[in-house]
Design a protein that fits this description.
single chain, alpha/beta, 5-stranded parallel beta sheet
């Protein structure tokens, strides 16, 4: 068996599993949630895996980012695509911020990290555009002040990031235990 723990820009299924588990623990049910995945979608394997899994579980998924960082075919992924944070966040119960992956970019896709934060980084004002009580996720590592403000990332009333880290251990242990159980049963 092969466990895909993330490959390039394509997939990151164990991250999607732990994000699903985090959302399920926070909200009880994932079906019916509106989840925004924001930022550097083009270079994110996390976005692709989460779109597939969350949609399968009945969540409404939105991708939000500048046109230079959202793949041209993203509208065919079974989700909504927005290039305006205010419109995209409207009514979202969960907001997943993505790391700006400068190391994977060819050419300048954003003017500067400061400018990026101004338009696409999550701060209190932008979070207020989401549904009341919206919760925030980030797969890490975080670039504080680029895609997320520390004030939000560190606020336990809003942030689910610590829970994501916890669920990462649990989800990956479960995947490995499942594979091991399958091998033992076959032997």
């Amino acid at each position: 068996s092969v466990v895909n723990a993330g490959d390039g820009r394509h997939e990151h299924p164990t991250q999607a599993l732990l994000d699903l588990l985090t959302l399920k623990r926070a909200f009880g049910e994932v079906g019916g949630l509106t989840v925004a995945i924001c930022g550097d979608v083009a270079h994110s394997r996390v976005a692709r895996s989460n779109v597939a899994l969350l949609a399968t579980m009945g969540a409404r998924v939105r991708l939000i980012g500048p046109p230079t960082l959202v793949p041209g075919d993203a509208d065919r992924w079974g989700c909504e695509v927005f290039h305006d944070m205010r419109e995209g966040l409207k009514g979202c119960e969960a907001v997943m911020m993505l790391r700006l992956q400068l190391e994977r970019m060819e050419g300048a896709l954003v003017p500067s990290t400061r400018e990026y934060f101004r338009f696409w980084g999550l701060d209190r004002e932008k979070l207020s555009w989401a549904a009341p009580g919206a919760r925030v996720l980030h797969p890490g590592p975080m670039n504080r002040g680029v895609e997320i403000d520390s004030d939000i990332a560190d606020d336990p009333e809003v942030s689910l990031i610590t829970e994501q880290v916890e669920m990462g251990v649990a989800a990956r242990m479960a995947v490995l235990a499942s594979l091991t159980a399958g091998r033992e049963a076959a032997a």
